[in-house]
Write a structure and sequence with these properties.
Structural class: mainly alpha
Largest sheet: 3 strands, antiparallel
Number of helices: 10
Strand order of the largest sheet: 1-2-3
Order of helices and strands: HHEEEHHHHHHHH
Number of strands: 3
Protein name: Ammonia transport outward protein 2
Oligomer: single chain
Distance between the termini: 49 Å
Membrane topology: Multi-pass membrane protein
Strand content: under 5%
Main location: membrane
Shape: elongated
Number of domains: 2
Helix content: 55-70%
InterPro entries: AceTr (IPR051633), Gpr1/Fun34/SatP-like (IPR000791)
Radius of gyration: 26 Å
Organism: Australozyma saopauloensis
Length: about 260
């Protein structure tokens, strides 16, 4: 008991107590106390804050980082990239503050919604998540392809110079293809959760209005598509947050709301 009290002294530290661990067999390690304020190593008890201090300076948002190096969750990264880029473009499409030129979104669509989201999709391949890899890589490719419409080096706008109606219809065909793809993904979310399914149904609706707006040259339809795009971006952010917030790092956690009753 006297030895344990010596280790529980408030002035103790792991740096000054290295000799304590010499010869101590690695076996039982557990937490004790009402708030896990002690770590029991073998038959000895130490304050948890000593171990927390030992891990100081590491980029973890938990007191003690995991000992095994596992892959992180790339879905939250990809969804965040999708949400931000969709939000900015949708604000433009909706005509908020009378802004109608989409060039402001090019930086995001190239580097965040494009490159970062594409990389997150590749990471999903290595995790064995087919749906995640397909969705993130292809929507990342969508943003890269969308960006190319506005760069002179690709010559897209120059090819349709003097034929703006053809350019508009061509963009409509471009968006129509993504509408069909998004609907295909929506069909395989019907057994997931309400927030996840809601993300894809609102995305499909967004593409429908944007496609119709281009093909019909109707700015009102495009504006409605922008409004649905804003809704889609917030749902995407919520799903991204759900992949980050845990009981270990947040007082607010994600409720799954499954669409299918689980056994």
């Amino acid at each position: 008991m006297a030895q344990n009290r010596r280790h529980l002294n408030d002035n103790s530290s792991l740096d000054s107590s290295q000799d304590t661990f010499k010869g101590l067999p690695v076996g039982s390690i557990r937490l004790s106390g009402e708030t896990n304020e002690y770590v029991i190593v073998g038959d000895k008890k130490y304050p948890t804050h000593e171990f927390m201090r030992a891990f100081g300076g590491m980029l973890f948002n938990q007191p003690i980082p995991p000992q095994a190096w596992n892959f992180g969750n790339p879905a939250s990264l990809g969804l965040s990239a999708f949400a931000m880029t969709t939000f900015v473009l949708s604000m433009v499409n909706a005509g908020v503050l009378n802004i109608h030129k989409p060039q402001i979104v090019l930086g995001l669509s190239c580097f965040y919604g494009g490159a970062v989201q594409f990389a997150a999709g590749i990471w999903e391949f290595f995790l064995g998540n087919t749906f995640g890899s397909v969705a993130l890589t292809l929507y990342g490719a969508f943003w890269l392809a969308y960006s190319s419409l506005f760069f002179e080096a690709f010559g897209v706008a120059a090819a349709y110079k003097g034929h703006e109606d053809q350019m508009r219809n061509a963009i409509g065909f471009f968006l129509l293809g993504w509408t069909l793809f998004s609907f295909m993904l929506f069909l395989v979310t019907l057994k997931s959760t309400v927030p996840f399914m809601s993300l894809f149904i609102t995305l499909v609706i967004t593409f429908i209005f944007l496609t119709s707006g281009e093909l019909a040259n109707n700015k009102t339809l495009t504006k409605v598509g922008g409004i649905f795009g804003i809704i889609t971006s917030f749902i995407a952010w919520y799903n991204a947050w759900a992949g980050v917030a845990t009981r270990q790092n947040s007082y607010f956690t994600y409720y799954q709301m499954p669409l299918v009753k689980r056994d």
